[in-house]
Design goal:
Structural class: mainly alpha
Strand content: under 5%
Helix content: over 70%
Number of helices: 56
Shape: globular
Mean pLDDT: 90
Low-confidence stretches: 653-660
Radius of gyration: 36 Å
Distance between the termini: 79 Å
Largest sheet: 3 strands, antiparallel
Number of strands: 3
Length: about 1100
């Protein structure tokens, strides 16, 4: 409601007083908040008189002597007409509408001030786009713009081109295309004397091309590309840097959105961009943008058929451009001082940083077969160059391309390792640092193969680098390389170096600089995490040192050191186990409590570490952690519950706050609005949800006091559309929460009725997400959670309506997947198959991987229902078979066909009704699939054969003679024990065991002794392994001659199998049957000799030998 003073001011304005309105405009721009707010209230009330309000704004825009008033009125006019609330354009009379259109066009023609003219141009553009689809539209607009373009005024041409560009970007390209002689006009403007006109023409061409849907229309603009390149060259030659940057950015957008548009002139465009990027006389911004264009072409290669055939030297040219970027580096004193980790970038130029990013993107786009041969030539030369910068660049390049080229680089692992080791002994410290970077990155991307084959040379050289006391930056980075080495290293390969490593790390912790200490802490934590039990001997030396750092590192500059020490403590504790860590753990938890209550600074890094540390301590202590839940839960719940920091703003340049442009924000454009989201909050929220999941998963019923609160926190987050990570973490938490409630109810610590209430609360939200989720990774997570919940719930807790809903959603997921597949096929059919190269086929496979994950989880969900409900859900599953049957078609990928076969297996295994109805139809499919080349397909088919033999013997008996030769052939195939074949082979062994167990008279004794027994133990398919090893135990205990052999000749082999089974621990055998094996070994070794047992045990790895000894010494209890 208007105040009296506002109302009186509005009444005064109703008498048409231009001077009074100009005074109001001045007040609207006043720096005084009170005066400005009062003026805003007056303007708001004036909008209730739309004709008058708009007339005031237009008249002031056209006649005011004040440049500021004219500019401000142009801005306000745009808002009230096209974006305001209320929206004034539909409310003003036609007479005023016509006046506005006419005066704006006159204003464009007559306004002399460039800044004001731009504001008027923006208003014309917005209004033109706004009314384009309305009755009447703005018929005078395009003809007027055409007149402007034919005039001799550079300002009018620039304004007209800007409006055309804006209309195109607002999907109002039809009136633009209707302009007479458009292409020739644009060509003329691209060659205009005025830089501003050329720039505006460049913008207009790119805007129009990006907005056109039809390729045929876009292609009519291709003849303008040479003129655009000439325009770009002109900008650079005269030093018009901003115009050149704008043109390059436009070209990048075109290459990103519609790369096919550039196809005909691509060689000329790429050649021009290569020259620009390589020109040392150009400023860095233009060189970087030219390189960005080339990288964009790389990343859109699938839309540019035969790219490498048309540009045979493309990759070589890229490396000749990008490698010199890495020379933009200096050896400065700040880097050597190593005072802060942030100083690690000291001396690095912008081209150096950008060059690294580009090399990584090239490798990820083209992969090793294309990149490595080209890179290899240059790197082998540069690593021997006298210029340290080139040696440094070689090693940095290795680090950047390793991820994308891993498969091919593995074949050159010896030479590449030697290149890095050579760098570690370079006389220049920065080169040694780069060598640490390269070896560390290669350990990540080429591991565990690099660690297994190169540890004898790599670890000693890393240790030597950690001795570089004169160069703490190198010492710290050597520690980082050790971290990477440990992440994919087998314990057996690390143990021989533990003494030396721990001696060195402890020394660095005691005597190193802060940066060195931080690196040593992370390395020590990684060593402990990998060494596990082997680290116990160092515990008493390490833990006091770590606790001392926690207590002494209280100064602000030591915040990261303290955080890393806390992380290290938790990882050491997990490595050594609760018995060793218990007493220190209590003190650490109290320390966490003190931190929680100490009002930490918002940017203290220890806050993010604390969440992870609490979970690790929980995993280490198990239920002994329960008394400390009150310490970790409050801050965790607070972090998970925090609201996202989202700001919604107008896209107008005047309203856009550039202060929001930082690495911690993500922007989403929605029409003329922009959403700015604080990503750090989203990351912290997602991490907190993940940590909650870890706590409940570890503590089970110990988490009962928090189940209700966390459930009510997680379920709404299934609709948290700001971040997929949060939705995934929330949905992953639901199954363990339900499990905790179920166990709690079973133990009497939770109301049984609450479990049902919890299901009724979570299931609808889960199903809603299942039906609406668009992110395929998140969708797969929802399906996985649904499967887990179905498997754990009592049958009575899911009503018929709930099951109905779930299968309806599954049907929707399958249909949507089929539709997406259909669209992909249609898109592919637009191209000639010969145009595809190997790289494009790889890219297509990667795109379909997430789709296969969804189908995989649908199959798992179906299996969960069948296992739990059997024949009850058979009609539901049968209703999906019309779609799942499509997966069996031979035109589908082996992965998709495998999913289809698994559905058949689950129906046969868990539904009597399905067996009776479909066994005769499924069997031929399984039999045919047993002969497939793909091992995974054969594995699923053979499993189904074993199921039929086990649960439907009446049917299977008539097919014994057909199946047995196939199984024997698979087991005895020369490549049967190859890694890729092992799963299929072991399922064939299992199916053979089920057959001779079910049909003892149908299988010859020789098959058991000569085919089945030699194939044991099974080590790949663990569920089948336990079943077959248990069968062997029963046969030996029962004195079954088929396995013992004539005169017990197979006893030695049986003992060897038993030793290897025990060496595999409870993964290969249940504790009950493990104990029975121990007894059998004790009896059998009297017949075969103790040396047979000793020889078999001697062939085991150290961890397997420990498992074997634990069984033999009775440390593993049956049960």
């Amino acid at each position: 409601m208007a105040t009296p003073s506002v109302e009186s001011e509005v009444q005064a304005l109703l008498t048409i007083d231009g001077t009074r309105f100009e005074a109001l405009v001045s007040e609207l721009m006043s720096p005084d908040n009170d005066r400005r707010k009062m003026a805003e209230l007056v303007l708001t009330q004036l909008k209730n008189h739309p004709d008058l309000c708009v007339q005031y704004l237009v008249n002031t825009l056209r006649t005011s002597a004040s440049k500021g008033n004219r500019s401000f009125c142009a801005l306000i006019l745009k808002k009230v007409l096209t974006k305001g609330d209320p929206l004034l354009w539909p409310r003003i009379s036609k007479q005023v509408q016509d006046m506005v259109k006419n005066e704006l066009l006159v204003g464009l023609r007559e306004e002399q001030e460039r800044d004001v003219c731009r504001k008027v141009c923006h208003t014309v553009s917005e209004l033109g786009a706004f009314v384009a689809d309305m009755n009447g539209g703005w018929n005078e607009l395009v003809p007027s713009l055409y007149q402007f373009l034919q005039s001799g005024s550079a300002g009018l041409k620039e304004s007209a081109l800007s409006v055309l560009s804006f209309l195109a970007t607002k999907d109002k390209v039809e009136p633009v295309m209707a302009m007479p002689n458009l292409h020739n006009t644009l060509q003329t403007c691209l060659n205009d004397e005025s830089v501003e006109v050329r720039k505006a023409a460049f913008d207009a061409v790119c805007g129009i091309v990006r907005s056109l849907d039809e390729a045929s229309q876009r292609n009519t603009f291709q003849p303008l590309i040479p003129h655009m390149l000439g325009c770009l060259g002109h900008f650079l030659n005269i030093g018009a840097v901003d115009a050149a940057h704008d043109a390059l950015e436009n070209m990048i957008e075109v290459a990103d959105m519609i790369p096919k548009f550039l196809r005909k002139q691509l060689p000329e465009i790429v050649n021009a961009m290569v020259q620009l990027a390589a020109s040392e006389s150009l400023e860095e911004g233009a060189r970087s943008l030219a390189a960005e264009f080339l990288i964009t072409v790389c990343e859109r290669r699938e839309q540019i058929p035969q790219l490498l055939k048309r540009l045979p030297n493309f990759i070589q040219n890229l490396f000749e451009v990008l490698m010199p970027f890495l020379l933009d580096i200096e050896d400065v004193i700040e880097w050597h001082q190593a005072a802060e980790l942030e100083d690690e970038d000291s001396g690095h130029g912008e081209l150096y940083e950008f060059g690294q990013e580009c090399l990584d993107r090239v490798a990820m786009s083209f992969r090793g077969k294309v990149v490595v041969p080209v890179a290899g030539v240059m790197l082998n030369a540069w690593i021997q160059d006298q210029d340290w910068k080139k040696r440094h660049a070689t090693l940095i390049c290795l680090a950047q391309i390793a991820e994308g080229c891993a498969k091919v680089m593995l074949k050159e692992i010896d030479a590449l390792t030697e290149m890095c080791l050579r760098g570690l002994t370079d006389p220049v410290a920065k080169v040694r640092w780069a060598a640490c970077q390269a070896i560390g990155q290669m350990c990540m991307d080429l591991g565990p193969h690099l660690q297994a084959s190169q540890h004898q040379v790599v670890v000693p050289r890393i240790l030597a680098a950690m001795d570089d006391n004169e160069n703490p930056r190198v010492q710290a980075h050597a520690s980082a390389a050790l971290v990477n080495f440990c992440e994919a290293c087998e314990v057996e390969d690390l143990v021989p170096y533990l003494d030396s490593l721990m001696e060195k790390l402890i020394q660095l912790l005691r005597c190193g600089s802060k940066v060195v200490q931080e690196g040593a802490l992370t390395a020590l934590a990684s060593v402990a995490d990998r060494a596990q039990d082997a680290f116990i001997k160092y515990y008493d030396s390490v833990m006091p040192l770590l606790r001392g750092i926690l207590l002494s590192a209280t100064d602000r500059k030591y915040q990261m050191l303290r955080a890393k020490a806390l992380e290290c403590v938790s990882l050491v504790g997990m490595a050594v186990g609760r018995d060793c860590f218990r007493n220190d753990a209590k003190d650490i938890l109290q320390y966490l409590n003190q931190l929680n209550n100490s009002h930490l600074e918002p940017d203290d890094p220890i806050m993010s570490y604390m969440m992870q540390v609490g979970v690790r301590l929980c995993k280490c202590l198990g239920h002994e952690f329960l008394p400390y839940m009150g310490i970790v839960m409050p801050p965790l719940l607070k972090a998970a519950a925090q609201d996202p920091d989202v700001k919604v703003k107008s896209l107008d340049e005047e309203d856009f706050d550039t202060a929001d442009d930082d690495e911690d924000t993500e922007k989403v454009f929605l029409g003329d609005r922009i959403l700015t989201i604080r990503t750090s909050i989203l990351e912290e929220k997602a991490t907190a949800c993940q940590m909650l999941c870890c706590y409940v998963d570890e503590l089970k019923d110990g988490f009962v006091p928090y189940v209700k609160e966390v459930t009510h926190l997680m379920v709404p987050l299934l609709k948290f559309y700001f971040a997929e990570d949060v939705r995934r973490a929330a949905v992953q938490t639901l199954p363990p929460l339900l499990e905790a409630a179920i166990i709690g109810a079973r133990k009497g610590v939770m109301n049984v009725a609450f479990v049902g209430e919890m299901v009724n609360f979570t299931w609808p939200a889960l199903m809603s997400m299942l039906g609406k989720e668009v992110d395929l990774e998140a969708l797969a997570t929802v399906l996985e959670a649904t499967s887990e919940i179905v498997e754990m719930l009592d049958k009575t807790l899911l009503t018929k309506e709930m099951v109905d809903t779930c299968f309806s959603k599954l049907h929707g997921v399958l249909c949507a997947s089929e539709e997406r597949r259909k669209n992909r096929i249609e898109d592919d059919q637009e191209r000639d198959p010969e145009e595809y190269d190997e790289l494009e086929l790889v890219a297509m496979d990667e795109e379909e991987e997430s789709e296969r994950n969804v189908l995989e989880e649908v199959g798992t969900c179906i299996a969960a229902f069948l296992k739990q409900y059997g024949d009850t859900v058979f009609p539901y599953v049968e209703s999906l078979m019309a779609i799942t049957a499509k997966l069996l078609d031979k035109s589908r990928s082996p992965e998709e066909r495998r999913i289809g076969i698994c559905v058949l297996d689950d129906l046969l295994e868990h539904s009597t009704a399905a067996r009776e109805k479909y066994a005769d139809r499924f069997f031929p499919i399984l039999l045919e699939t047993m002969r497939e080349e793909d091992a995974d397909l054969r594995q699923c088919a053979v499993y189904g054969i074993g199921v039929l033999a086990d649960v439907h013997p009446q049917f299977f008996a008539t097919h014994l003679n057909t199946v047995l030769p196939l199984l024997v052939s698979m087991i005895q195939h020369p490549q049967a024990r190859e890694k890729d074949e092992l799963g299929a082979t072991e399922n064939a062994v299992s199916s053979l065991g089920k057959i001779f167990h079910k049909f003892p008279d149908a299988v010859e004794a020789g098959v058991v002794a000569q085919v089945w027994l030699p194939a044991l133990p099974l080590v790949e398919d663990l569920s089948e392994a336990k079943e077959m090893h248990s069968l062997l135990v029963k046969m030996v205990e029962g004195g079954d001659a088929r396995v013992l052999g004539e005169g017990n000749q197979n006893l030695a082999k049986i003992v060897q199998v038993f030793v290897r089974v025990l060496g595999g621990g409870n993964q290969l055998v249940s504790n009950e049957f493990g104990a029975r094996i121990v007894g059998l070994i004790g009896k059998l070794q009297a017949s075969v000799g103790v040396e047979v047992v000793q020889t078999a045990a001697g062939s085991l790895t150290s961890s397997q030998q420990k498992a074997f000894q634990d069984y033999m010494e009775g440390k593993v209890q049956a049960g």
